[in-house]
């Protein structure tokens, strides 16, 4: 339902998808890129580049650990409000957003940057500056994108640009790790704009502006816990042992055949359980990750995995005594990121590709796991792009970005061109 | 060498072993039990029972965590000195001891109680008293035995008893858990009396006085760590995974056949490793415990285990790509308690049995893992007995003993009778 609605709205605003030849997208993009108002907008970004840097630093230094994005969200909400957006609000999940109204006739375009970092509470998030190089946990992933969104609003306003589409600017929660896309899940499942978003662009991470993530690597993550009666390693020898069930489960899991295309993977990440070397454990557990770009392949791996976990418990119950209790297996879904693909020939992907070509680069079409997974799985045209500039060591304590102006501005120019090409610029 | 020396000394003092019929031991024990000096000694224990209780409380309230027995050892050293022993000293490992000289002709008899508890630093060791019931961590295991040794010295002295054997009273370190018998290992391998101890009695825990632990359950404990190059669960899929090697290792280990007699066991106690659900771990590990009353069976299990760990690494290196690095396995021996058995027909076991019968009970011959494991493995006659009284919940925070006089004295009477029967009482 959502998907169909989004698609029909889209057709009204952007170049006709699928059928349109590549040159049509290039033409549209060139028209935007050459528009005098875009020049004014870009001059504004250039002139206010120091303010962008100040915003990046300010946002980075407000800690935003997983599930604890409140402080940064509150600050960002005020920043969105100060940028003159309407319907500025914080939804029930903690996402903050504001609307820039269009003149009508285009799909609602959501442009989102996630608020959360991977870093726990207590991490030193002080920004260390050395020339144009800024280092701090989370600075590139994703403070820069949050600040770029604000710079884009100011630029569009300064150039007095009117778009056909309404544009929803979002700082969302829960992109990283155990956050499990909770921000965008709420946005598309229960949020106030859930039925209206026609296109979705996630801006995530620093980077050169040639990467278009249109494929969603889906994942299913489980915590598997084998439990049993436990006992003394010597006195109770012969009773079922959850660690042996876990061992068998890991071995079985390791044998699942998967295709290399569509790429499908599985892994045991963390294992644990047991209290002492001389006790049969009460429980032994593992955390597993299964991924695929194909929903069908992901389902196939998951079904085999689920059967194997039960098989491992059953085999241990057969191999040793269950007089004091049996091995049971508990399967807790701890991560669920849907997979899918925004078609390469869709308007959003083709427009993004034309933008990359317009700045003289070759588009790279990639698959990843980002906030776009969710709309993609719903059939809503969605891609993830980067926020410009250079950077590295994302998710590490020595994460850094370089705000050297030329590369920093190029990324913003790309994003702005893309947004206006999709939103219909007057 | 030690074993042979110990055996020849033993023959001089105690009833001839092996060949001697049961009645000979009963006769010897009855002669000691009926000796007027034993009556004086037991009257002393009875009269000074309150002092025993005071000593139990005092020792319990000096914390003695694993590897941190120093404070309790220092206090006990002074108590041994105050009891008029000679050659009072603290050895290089932290054991404290003192000698009560005999008149000659008997083997040196070591009577040891371990100083250490299983409880970590910071555990509240305040004794809670309710009538004759005393509760505190470590009070039964092993403060009571430490205090009983002192009561025995006072009783023998008060009765002016001369023994043929020298008797070495020991408060030793490192009996529990990771202590891995370090106290008795030092005593028999490098300590000043290492070549002289002809018999060894460990007094360990409260109890009714009918249990004779003459069998040493040996154990070999390993921490097995599989390491590999690690990587992203999706991006680096196809590389070797230490968790899969661990799984295979656990499964292989679980299939080793073992005899029920001589009882032989194995277990995986604790597993761990990995940093996040979406990373191939750099390392995955487990702690395993193998035990047997038979050194040969223990060795057989261990040899199969060691081969299987290498096999698991090899198989993972065959199953997946090693382009970024191979799975390696590290085997760290974390526990080594030798096994063996002081023969049922040996003088020390038969004398202990006769003492149990003399108090109207039926001897129980058992196997366990105690300080006696070490001398037993060396062929030195050794048993572990309890310290009398009642108690429970050893190794738990609500550990308790009951110092009700009748059962408390009965255990001390047994120990005293045994010691004097073995030491040769004039």
Describe what this molecule looks like in 3D.
Two copies of one chain form a homodimer. Chain A is built from twelve helices and 19 strands. Chain A has helices at about 1-15, 20-35, 35-45, 50-60, 70-80, 140-160, 180-190, 240-255, 295-320, 345-360, 375, 405-425, and strands spanning about 85-90, 95-100, 110-115, 130, 135, 165-170, 195-205, 210-215, 220-225, 230, 265-275, 280, 285-290, 330-335, 340, 365-370, 380-385, 390, 400. In chain A, the strands form five sheets. A six-stranded mixed β-sheet of chain A has the order 1-2-6-3-7-17, with helices on both faces. The first copy, chain A, has a four-stranded antiparallel β-sheet with strand order 4-5-19-18, with no helix packed on it. The radius of gyration of chain A is 24 Å and the shape is elongated. Chains A and B meet through helix 8, strand 11, strand 12 and strand 13 of A and helix 8, strand 11, strand 12 and strand 13 of B.
Give the strand order, joined by hyphens, for the main sheet of chain A. 1-2-6-3-7-17
Distance between the termini of chain A: 30 Å
Shape type of chain A: elongated
Estimate the strand proportion of chain A: 15-25%
- Average pLDDT reading of chain A: 93
Which two chains touch over the largest interface?
Answer: A-B, 48 and 48 residues
Pick out the low-confidence regions of chain A. Answer: 1-19
Count of individual helical segments of chain A: 12
Oligomer: homodimer
Tell how many strands the DSSP assignment of chain A holds. 19
Radius of gyration of chain A: 24 Å
């Amino acid at each position: 339902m959502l998907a169909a609605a989004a698609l029909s709205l889209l057709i009204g605003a952007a170049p006709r998808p699928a059928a349109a030849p590549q040159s049509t997208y290039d033409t549209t993009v060139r028209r935007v890129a050459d528009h005098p108002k875009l020049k004014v907008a870009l001059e504004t970004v250039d002139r206010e580049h120091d303010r962008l840097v100040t915003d990046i630093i300010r946002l980075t230094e407000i800690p935003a650990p997983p599930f604890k994005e409140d402080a940064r969200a509150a600050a960002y909400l005020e920043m969105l409000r100060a940028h003159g957006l309407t319907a500025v609000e914080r939804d029930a999940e903690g996402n903050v957003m504001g609307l820039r109204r269009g003149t009508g006739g285009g799909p609602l375009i959501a442009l989102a940057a996630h608020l959360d970092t991977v870093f726990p509470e207590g991490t030193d998030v002080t920004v260390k500056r050395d020339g144009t190089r800024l280092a701090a946990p989370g600075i590139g992933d994703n403070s820069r994108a949050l600040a770029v969104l604000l710079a884009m609003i100011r630029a569009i306003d300064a150039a007095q640009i009117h778009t056909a589409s309404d544009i929803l600017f979002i700082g969302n929660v829960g992109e990283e790790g155990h956050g499990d896309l909770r921000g965008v899940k709420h946005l598309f499942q229960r949020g106030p704009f859930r039925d209206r978003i026609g296109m979705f662009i996630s801006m995530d991470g620093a980077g050169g502006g040639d990467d278009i993530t249109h494929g969603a690597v889906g994942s299913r993550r489980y915590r598997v816990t084998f439990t049993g009666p436990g006992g003394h390693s010597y006195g109770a020898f012969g009773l079922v042992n959850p660690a042996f069930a876990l061992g068998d489960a890991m071995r079985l899991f390791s044998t699942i055949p998967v295709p290399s295309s569509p790429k499908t993977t599985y892994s045991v990440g963390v294992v644990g359980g047991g209290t002492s070397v001389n006790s049969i454990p009460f429980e032994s557990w593992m955390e597993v990750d299964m991924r695929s770009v194909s929903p069908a392949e992901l389902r196939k791996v998951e079904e085999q995995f689920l059967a194997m976990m039960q098989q491992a418990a059953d085999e241990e119950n057969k191999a040793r005594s269950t007089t004091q209790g049996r091995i049971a297996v508990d399967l807790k879904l701890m991560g669920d990121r849907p997979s899918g693909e925004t078609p390469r020939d869709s308007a959003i992907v083709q427009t993004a590709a034309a933008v990359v070509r317009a700045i003289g680069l070759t588009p790279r079409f990639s698959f990843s796991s980002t906030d776009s997974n969710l709309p993609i799985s719903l059939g809503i045209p969605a891609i993830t792009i980067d926020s410009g500039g250079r950077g590295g060591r994302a998710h590490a304590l020595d994460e850094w970005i370089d705000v050297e102006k030329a590369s920093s501005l190029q990324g913003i120019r790309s994003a702005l061109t893309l947004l206006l090409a999709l939103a219909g610029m007057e």
